[in-house]
Amino acid sequence: MAIQRHIFQINIIFILSFISSYASLHDGPPYNKYLQQESGYDFEAYPSYYSTIEDTKFKNSAKLQTRIYGFKTFQRLAASANTINVDDFGAKGDGTHDDTQAFQKAWQKACSSTGAAFVVPQKKNYLLKPIRFSGPCKSKLTMQIYGTIKASSDRSDYNTQGNHWLIFDSVQNLIVQGGGIINGNGKIWWQNSCKINKALPCKDAPTALTFYNGNNLIVKNLKIQDAQQIHVSFEKCVNVQASNLEVIAPEMSPNTDGIHVTDTQNIQISNCVIGTGYGYNLRTRSWNQLSIGSLGSGNSKESVSDVTVNGATLYGTTNGVRIKTWPGGSGSASNIKFQNINMHDVMNPIIIDQNYCDQAKSCTQKSSAVQVKNVVYQNIKGTSASDVAMTFDCSKSFPCQGIAVQNINIAKAGGGAAKALCNNVNLQKIGTILPHCP
To answer: For residue 306, how many C-alpha atoms fall within 13 Å in the half-sphere facing its CB?
Structure first.
């Protein structure tokens, strides 16, 4: 089944910088006030929106928040389950033998069993070609990855599976965790990327770990490294918890996004460490930080709604909190909150770009655009590495609507006042706003 990447897409993007760039998720947000608690807040200005942005009323939300899960709890769960060990199905775990068939047989056994724990033993390195872990399964299932799973470096192995290496397809009530390593072994793909060698044609590389059409998923306590392109992707899923993930790739690995979320509802991502060519979520060495989009490329219709980003600190990133849409698209990005965020030497701390154009040829002016509306920036402070700390570059045809800024204080790094650039935006200001639109 081909996987379509549209409708609900959150690409919060990072690139690794070994010198000074990283971001961290606080154990708890430093501020507890919300817009309705501030004196001077006008409920009448945007009554329908502000009634929906209270945290308790988000229904289909992507929330970044702190939650710590005990590893011993998972060990007790595995001990009480029906254990399916890949070694019992012929896996060698020597890093050179192809263990794909052994994993496939073990999965078929686990998926058809009751309360199974699929175990990848520690201190071993299992070489896998592209593999699909297909559901639905008989009952809830746990995959305990204690060792290392390593991707085949033969690019021809990926011709039949498309752009996926490990994919969980239509599996419900699944836990994947264990403290092990998923190694995308992506160097050969990076070397053949048009981002590195301009003479080569541009082709997508595989996603290392994909969860497709799954419900009630828990993904925790894993290291995912050196993906061919995207490290982790959640697509068409419902009720997802992803936490305590370490996602790592070298600085110059092209387009090695950290975590993609597409057409997915009720997802929580917390306590993750990411340092990649591009990425997602908090505590990272990065290039592009917390980004929604890009949306509307190729005149497509795309929508994102009900997103909360809460409690991050960004150091030395190119972008801070960003929404980006292509001219000519349609749909909307709405009901979004960025709150309790500290910025240090960030090039573009706050930015909405409805004229995004990531191509060699300049984009022509279009009459349609993805509507950006009902966005809150709250309790954001720090320093900007550029003169412009806040940019709202919105469409003439579809101006940004219901954009609220509250308690913003971003100065120019090294001293002095930063600037704001505001085009075609309907702005609500609450509290101290620095810089402010002219």
So the answer is: 18
8 A C-beta contact, residue 43 and residue 36: yes
Q: What is the CATH number of domain 29-65+287-438?
A: 2.160.20.10
Cα pseudo-dihedral 431, 51, 24, 8, rounded to 10: -130
Residue 401 has pLDDT above 70, yes or no: yes
Q: Residue 378 — pLDDT band, cuts 50, 70, 90?
A: very high
Per-residue model confidence as pLDDT tens digits over 150-207: 999 999 999 877 789 999 999 999 999 999 999 999 999 999 998 888 888 888 899 9
Q: Residue 48 contacts by C-beta under 8 Å, 6 or more apart in sequence?
A: none
Domain boundaries, the chain: 29-65+287-438, 67-262
pTM over 0.85: no
CA gap 54, 96 in Å, rounded: 52
C-alpha–C-alpha distance, residues 62 and 337, integer Å: 10
Residue with tokens 């807040």: 41
Helix (H) / strand (E) containing 184: none
Whole-number Å distance between alpha carbons of 255 and 358: 13
3-state secondary structure of 130: coil
Whether 17 and 316 have beta carbons less than 8 Å apart is answered as yes
Kind and range of the H or E run holding 353: strand 348-353
Could you tell me the two tokens for 403?
A: 């954009």
Question: From its phi and psi, is residue 181 left (phi > 0), alpha (psi between -120 and 50) or beta?
Answer: beta
Q: What is the dihedral of CA 86, 92, 97, 99, to 10 degrees?
A: -10
Q: Is 67-262 a domain of CATH 3.40.605.10?
A: no
The number of CA neighbours under 13 Å toward the Cβ of 174 is 29
Buried b (16+ CB within 10 A) or exposed e, 208-220: bbbbbbbbbbbbb
29-65+287-438 and 67-262 agree in CATH topology: yes
Number of continuous H segments (helices) and E segments (strands) in the chain: 4, 30
pLDDT in tens, 57-70: 333 334 443 333 33
